[in-house]
User: Fold UDP-glucuronate 4-epimerase from Fraxinus pennsylvanica.
Amino acid sequence: MPSLAGEEFFLPSMPGKFKDKSHTLHRQFHRCFASTSTMFLWALFLVVLTASYLSFQSFVDSSSKYLSSAWGGIQWEKQVRASAHIHRQNGFSVLVTGAAGFVGAHVSLALKKRGDGIVGLDNFNNYYDPTLKKARQSLLNSHNIFIVEGDVNDERMLAKLFDIVAFTHVMHLAAQAGVRYAMENPNSYVHSNIAGLVTLLEACKNANPQPAIVWASSSSVYGLNEKVPFSESDRTDQPASLYAATKKAGEEITHTYNHIYGLSITGLRFFTVYGPWGRPDMAYFSFTRNILQGKPVTVYRGKNRVNLARDFTYIDDIVKGCVASLDTAKKSTGSGGKKRSPAQYRIFNLGNKSPVTVPMMVGILEKHLKKRAKKSIVEMPGNGDVPYTHANISSAQTELGYKPTTDLQTGLKKFVRWQDLCLFSVNSLCLGYSLYLLSFLYRPA
Ligand SMILES: O=C(O)[C@H]1O[C@H](OP(=O)(O)OP(=O)(O)OC[C@H]2O[C@@H](n3ccc(=O)[nH]c3=O)[C@H](O)[C@@H]2O)[C@H](O)[C@@H](O)[C@@H]1O
Assistant:
């Protein structure tokens, strides 16, 4: 019985057919190195081998650096192109800034669902827990929307994006939001809402073709106005907060780019937008959390014990307004830094036409949460708040076909249902994972 380990096991059964070449090879090896010229050739071969190994290493290093940066690289470009791919006739390719934000995520999904190509952009800053932004990102990823991780102040990155995709539209929703936080971190408002806006407009102006731009202004530009409801033609020169002042500045800046460079611009004054996947810094969201945890909610009250009121607008209505603005936007008219003819410039209120007081909003939450709130009523601090907002939406109605359909009762019910799902999964799993999971469970209609 031949042993498996034994050499004989590998020998062919018919002697003569197989020649053991080991001795011959041995001899050839010796013969080869015995000659000086062949030794020189071997040395040369080793030098070339080492040199090519070293240059290959440096190529791998530099390309991995290139690939691992937040943007850029072959793979990144592929993702951008795939995400921008249009799936309907005469569809748009839209750059959505702030795509991991509340309104940005909803608008991106709505556009993608009807077949437009979307590329998202977001800097994932930590103004509020970025876990929520990452969860919105997963939601968008599951619909094949790629979000570029970057800041609107990054002009090289923007130039690269416009180089890769001929965007027909830009939906600019990236901003430093929040009225009261402006007192804590004023520079973040200048950074995002002014410097970032200018950098983005420069990129749009330089792009060929120039995209049409729709961007988020705010109801806060009406500031301390007393005439209600607020109409687009009303004065907007008495802002009550730095946030409002930067949005007002945005309206002036976009007007300049429209006037000089022929960029088509539509500014949307959003009125206190709320709903599922919303911003945790907003009152309806933080009040819900506090009521559920049995903590007090601080309800501000205006002068002479007057209740504050807001024209709360549900996210689905806002999305319809944004999409209609894109659909009715005319093309930009400039190229090569010059305007060829006057371009469209519009501003619309997107509100709900029916203000609700803050105590009434708390009452609705109590009903949906089936829990009483511990209310602490305090004088409105001088922190940028305005006493009330109320939108006149007739312009948006006429020109965009905008018609809000969700009242606060219904909208908060939908928000509470979403919040319930959130809490259920947070209680059973860790926050990050549960939000990730939620992005698959709860998809906006
Ligand atoms: O419509 C807008 O232009 C703005 O709407 C909201 O700002 P705001 O209306 O102040 O929304 P919340 O922060 O949710 O406040 C809603 C109401 O609750 C009140 N509030 C807020 C916080 C609080 O602790 N207590 C309280 O009574 C506020 O004074 C306000 O009347 C957004 O946060 C802004 O980013 C947006 O631009």
User: Anything to note?
Assistant: The chain has one domain: 69-441. Residues 47 and 349 are 72 Å apart (CA to CA). The pocket of uridine-5'-diphosphate-glucuronic acid is lined by residues 177-179, 218-220, 270-272, 282-283, 298-300, 308, 310, 358, 385 (CB under 6 Å).
